[in-house]
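Run folding on both entries below.
>entry_1
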Amino acid sequence: MNITIDAEKSIIEGFINKDNALFIVAVVDGKIIGALSFSGGARKRLAHVGEFGVSILKEYWGKGIGQELIKYLIDWAKETKVIRKINLRTRSDNDRAIRLYKKIGFAEEGIIRREFMIDGKFYDSLMMGMLID
C-alpha cells in the first residue's frame, strides 16, 4: 500500500503533543528500518490504555531492533504516569513475535477469530497485554 507524503505527515502529526501517544523510528545509516506507533484512547475513561504496532524491515529481523523499540515504549509508558496498560494484536501463527512479546512480559489475553485476511485467507488474532504499574 502506497500513501502520499502528506498522508504520512498527517498520521505522524496525530501523535504529536499527546501525553498518551508515541511514534518512534529506528534508523541505520540514515535509513529508517523500523517504526513503532502507540496510541492511547481518545476518551478520558480510555486514555490510560492503548495499542501499539511495530514494523521492522525484513533484512533487519533477528537483530533485537523490535525488542529495543518495545522496551523504549514500556519505559516511556511508565514515565507518563498516564498509560496503565499496553495492548497489542498479532497473528496467532506468528510464533516469533509471540515469543518476543512473552519474553518482554506481555501476557496472552484472548483470540479474535478471522481478524486478518491476507490474500483471501483468514487468520486469527492473538490479543496480548501488559499492565503498567
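>entry_2
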Amino acid sequence: MKLIICAGPATTGKTAVLRHLIRKLQARGQKPAFLKIDVQYAEEDEQFAREFGIPTRKVYSGELCPDHCNVMVLGDALQWASSANCDVLMVETAGLCLRCSPYVDGGLGLVVLEATSGMNLPLKVGPMLSLADVAVVTKIDRISQAEREVFRARIQDVAPGVRIREVNALHGIGIDPLVARVDAQADVNGPLLLRGNPPVGTCTICVGKKEIGWQSHFGVVRALENQTFYRGE
C-alpha cells in the first residue's frame, strides 16, 4: 500500500486536489482510503465517502498540533487502510504548525500552496515545504505569468529538490503528473520514521503556563532583544 501525506495552509485547495486524484486513481482500478486530520471541524471524510464510496476516517487533533496528531495516529491508520484492502492511503492534515513536518520516510509528501497568497509565502511555511516531495501550486489562473514565475523561484529558493506542479484544482487541470508520481511511489514497508527533526522542545506555554514575559518561563525562551537563549531545566 502506498502512503500519501498532503499538507498545506488553510484554503489552498488540498481537498480539491485530492478529489481529482482519487477520481483518477479509481478510474485506473485502484482503491484509495482517506484520513482527514483537523483541529476542530472537518467534513471532507463524509463528502469523499458519499462521492467515491471509499473508506474514510476523521481525527480531531484538539489540544495537539495536527502534525503531532498525525504522528500519533498514522500507525493505526495504516493498519485500518490495509485491513480494508486499499492500495493507497491519503492523509490530509491541516499542518498548522510551521516548525514541524507531517511527512514520513517511505511516504509521498505533497504540500499544496495557493499562488494568490503572496510571493513570499514559500519563505514562511518551513518544513511543510522544504521536506516535501512535490509542491502543488493552485489558483494559478488568478495571477499573472510574471507572478507565477516569482512564486516558483521562491519555492526553489526554499526547496531546490522539490518537484513543482501547477494545477487548476477547480477543474482538475494538471492532475495527471500527480497520478504518475503516485504510481511511481514505492509501497510503505517496515517501521516509519518522521521526516526531518522535531522542534527543539516543548515550551512551558505549551504545557499550560499563562504568565506573560520570558522571566516567568524556562526551557527554550525568547526575549525581545535576544533572539534565542536557554534558561533553566
